[in-house]
Amino acid sequence: MEDHIDEILIPRQSIAARVYEMAGQIAADLRRDADGEPQVAILAVLTGSLIFLADLIRQMPLMMRIRLLAVSSYRGRTTAPGELLIDRAMLGDLRDQHVLIVDDVLDSGATLTAVQQTVFAQCPASLRTCVLLRKDTVAAQTVRADYVGFDIPDKFVVGYGLDHDGHYRNLPDIVTLRPEVLA
Ligand code: 5GP
Ligand code: MG
Description:
Layout: E1 5-10, H1 12-33, E2 40-45, H2 50-57, E3 64-69, E4 71-73, E5 84-86, E6 98-106, H3 110-120, E7 126-135, H4 138-141, E8 147-152, E9 157-158, E10 174-177, H5 179-182
Parallel strand pairs: 2-3, 2-6, 6-7, 7-8
Antiparallel strand pairs: 1-10, 4-5, 9-10
Helix pairs in contact: 1-2
């Protein structure tokens, strides 16, 4: 697996340092928002955000509930091509909750926009969005992300939860793959 790596874009030490910073900032903002102890609901978009989520929440000493959200692009008869399906039953009751959406990569923004709209419809007390990576694309800049771990070039990356065809999620660094592996 290691010999499939082309370039280490973000080493594990840099990820750890940045996630520590983000957790502190988010926890402080959530505390400031609420009158007393905030009712925090974390919504993590599966599957890429899994490791980021695990590191982030263990550094946020707040009462919180965690929900894992499956978002799939579904091409069927009843939906428009490419429309994103969100299992609303997974959201739970978000009324008066301080919601934090956690996702891995902000690219076209389609995923985050769909999740944000679904959450807004549930009347949360507040809504924040946190992404580990934001691609250097025009579309990515137009979507609201309150916390961004790293801005990266528009390259395909894996590791630290991110996959290629289901593999490489367990790599501790964020890397690019050799062209012959991607082909
Ligand atoms: P968007 O809806 O913003 O276009 O897509 C974001 C989703 O596409 C991410 O949550 C992630 O699952 C996937 N994605 C986008 N860029 C990359 C990438 O460079 N590597 C991997 N592994 N997934 C990506
Ligand atoms: Mg994703």
